[in-house]
Design a protein that fits this description.
The protein is α/β, with parallel strands linked by helices and about 350 residues long. Helices cover about 30% and strands about 20% of the residues. The chain contains ten helices and 17 strands.
Amino acid sequence: MKVLVTGGAGFIGSHVAEALIDAGYQVRVLDALLPAVHTDKPAPVLADGVEFVCGDVRERTTVETVLHGVEAVCHQAAMVGLGLNLDDAPAYVGCNDLGTAVLLAAMARAGVRRLVLASSMVVYGEGRYRCAEHGDVTPGARRAADLAAGRFEPPCPRCGRPLTPGLVTEEAPPDPRNVYAATKLAQEHLAAAWARATGASVAALRYHNVYGPRMPRDTPYAGVASFFRSALAQSRPPRVFEDGAQRRDFVHVRDVATANVAALRWTAPDVGQPQLRAFNVGSGIARTVGQMACALAAAHGGPEPVVTGQYRLGDVRHITASSHRLVTELGWRPVVDFEAGIREFAAAPLRGEQVSR
C-alpha cells in the first residue's frame, strides 16, 4: 500500500514516514517546507525509500498529482501552537482548515477512502475534573484576574471548591479554547463530513504533548518541550509558566508515529454508524510541566528551570490522556520510557540548529 504523508518533512510527519517505511508501506511525502518550521528550507530529514514532493496541501493541482497511486493518507500538515492572538486566526484557518478541505475534496475525486488525521488534545479544552460534591464537572474559562493573582486551579463551576483532575477520554465533549484548538476541531468535522459522503474511514489521533528528536527550535509556534530545550541549548534556564504544576501527558514522537501505523488498520463500521473514530495518543502517565522541565534540565546538564508565575490566557490548567481505546482496539502501546526519551531529547539537535559534521 502506498501512503501519502502530508507535512511529512516536519517533526512528527518525518517520524510517521519512517515508521511506515519500517512497517513495509510505500511512502510519499508532501511538504511545503514553511519557514516557520524549516528555516531556509533545508533538505528534509527523511527515511530511505521515501518519495518527497515539495508543495502545499492548499494547492489543488499539487494535491491531485501526489494522490496518484495512493491508497491512504496520514494528514500531518498543520500550523501548530496556541494562536498568539486573533490576528493569527486567518493563517491558522488557511493552513489547517482550508488545507484539509482541499485535501479531502481531492481524495473524494481520486477515490482514496482511508485517512489518519493528526488531531490534538486541545479540542477538549480543560481536561477531566471531579468535584467531591458534584461529581464530574466542566470548569469555565480561567479569568485573567485569578491568574494574575496566582490562582491557577479552576474551581468547581457550581460550588467554587477545588477540583481533582483525571484522565480525559474520547467521550468528553469538545471545548476548544484558542484559535489553534478551534481549527483542529474543524478538521475533525470536515473529515467526518467527507467520510459520511464517501463511505470512507477516518481515525482522528488526538496527540497529547509530543516531544523528541527533530522538534523545531524556539519559535512562536513551538511546544513547551521545544521552548525548554531551546533555552538549555543557549545555556539559559527553562522558563516555566504559572507554578509549574500544570498536568500534561508527554508522549515520545516515535510512539506517536507507531500510533499512525496502527490507525491505518481502523475501518469504519457499517453504513449508518460513525465513520470517524477518535483516539487519544498519550503515555497514560500524568506529569507536571515543572517535572518535565527539571528532567530535561538535569539530562542536559543544567541550568535549572525558573518558575515565573507568568501565564497565557489560551492555556488550560490540566489535560492528561486515557489512551485505553487505542490500546484495546488497535493493539498500540507506548514503548519509549520517559527518562530514556528525555535523555535522548536533551542531546538531540533541534530542527533549525546548526550541526557540525
